[in-house]
Amino acid sequence: CLDHCPVPPELAKHSFGAEKGQGIACEGYVRIPRPGGIKRGWVKEYMVICDFKLFLYEISPDKGLASQEIQQVVDMRDDDFTAAAVLPSDVIHANKKDIPCIFRVTTSEMNPPGSQHQILLLANSEKDKENWLVALKNLHMILRSKNL
Q1: Any idea which GO molecular function terms this record carries (predicted)?
Q2: Fewer beta carbons within 10 angstroms: which end of the chain, N or C?
Q3: Residues 6 or more apart from 120 whose CB is under 8 A from it?
Q4: Does CATH number 2.30.29.30 belong to domain 9-146?
């Protein structure tokens, strides 16, 4: 876990703690739209859900491994945080076979009041998408129930 996210050393020895949402809940490869949108294709990244945050890491093109540099961080404690599957009308430029594997994470972080930031994510399969969504929704429920 220390390689992926800033977990205090005393907690890093333990696996994911569902009660507190600490540690790595889920990790794996996803794709995000290239700059310019879905029409331009997708870029592979490594995503880690850890300590109520989503960490997205670039993949090194020459090695095919996640780099140590964090590309993006999304805090699930954001009041407007949601994670949901998309509709075909949400991703009109996506390949039809990809649509069942696409989901969206929405936050309001660092945006003007009333506006939202959305990240589209393409999982490797429908099953992977469901696993990501279940992990995100379960952690979000823990956050809300514990007022963390």
Answers
A1: protein serine/threonine kinase activity
A2: C
A3: 32, 33, 38, 86, 91, 102, 103, 104
A4: yes
